[in-house]
Amino acid sequence: MAHAPDTDVGLYRTVRLIRLFEERAVELVRSGDVVGGIHPYTGQEAIAAGVCAALRVDDVITSTHRGHGHVLAKGADPARVLAELAGRATGLNRGRGGSMHAADFGLGILGANAIVGANGAITAGAAWAARQEGGDRVAVSFFGDGAVNQGVLLEAMNLAALWRLPVLFVCENNGYATTLTVADAVAGTITGRGEAFGIPSVTVDGMDPRTVLDAAREAVDRARAGGGPSLVECLTYRFDAHHTWEHRARVRYRDDDEVRTGRERDPVVIQGARLTGEERERVDAEVRSTLDAAVAFALDSPHPDPAGALDHLYATGMRPRPGGGG
Ligand SMILES: Cc1ncc(C[n+]2csc(CCOP(=O)(O)OP(=O)(O)O)c2C)c(N)n1
Ligand SMILES: [Mg+2]
């Protein structure tokens, strides 16, 4: 059966895949196979799953430091994403990008991005390019609450509104930028930033894949019809650490009660309740075998040859000249 990501089974498959992917990735960080750590997307899966289910393959997305979920939901091969995290030659970007730079242009994944807020400008540019082409492709920018005070994102919103670009701004408000709360960092409201530019802006439950899909669909339809950008603020909760490093550093900024309460509404459980037990078991088994194969693929893959370290750095295929000079 073809994968239909916007059905109840499809949405469940996507959130389940992202959850298990992140669990396996954390294990590989602990074992030392993924060097440098990751920002787990655990708890926020409904947003990537819901938004990407409203998109076509030729639509584009830009992502963040917490980007595995977006990349997987847009259709990237989990085995190649995991190999990328593990720095292997078979990785999505030949092991050169790692967790925060995964990209697959063929699937419209313009890249995760470690610079908070920076992807807004890339998305507006991609949307402008899509419009110049004459089609009805849309561009989505995923970003966290930590990005809403970054000038570049506000500049991108301004231009997107002014030029009625087909952009969907998706804010994943998980309440924290690292350890800083939204209450301590954000004056006014997040939707108020969109409204200031005349951008239709809504706040939705970011723990329910179907709610996110409905909101994304409305925004995507508007963008395709020439109605310009939209902002969807998704209220969510990060179940795990900001970064895997946090477990070792024992940073304390959320008390146990808050984390317990925050985890009560679990997107995997919420979406799973819409399936029969049999459907759930079938998807769970399928996802487990996909991830087992992905881990084996990543760990069996070779590291890139150091002699080729300067390959693939430029779109033109050129390497820097020996002795510098560009
Ligand atoms: C421009 C910039 N400033 C600071 C950082 C360091 N940094 C990395 S993640 C992060 C927090 C981002 O919070 P948010 O956007 O809410 O995303 P979340 O981590 O909650 O998913 C910060 C400050 C950065 N990567 N880029
Ligand atoms: Mg945040």
TrEMBL record:
| Cofactor(s) this protein cannot do without | thiamine diphosphate
State the superkingdom: Bacteria
- List each copy of the Dehydrogenase E1 component domain by range: 13-306
User: What EC numbers are recorded for this enzyme?
Assistant: 1.2.4.1
Molecular function (GO) terms listed? pyruvate dehydrogenase (acetyl-transferring) activity
Keywords carried by this UniProt record: Oxidoreductase, Pyruvate, Thiamine pyrophosphate
Region of interest (Disordered), ranges? 305-326
What this protein is called in its record is Pyruvate dehydrogenase E1 component alpha subunit
Organism field: Saccharothrix longispora
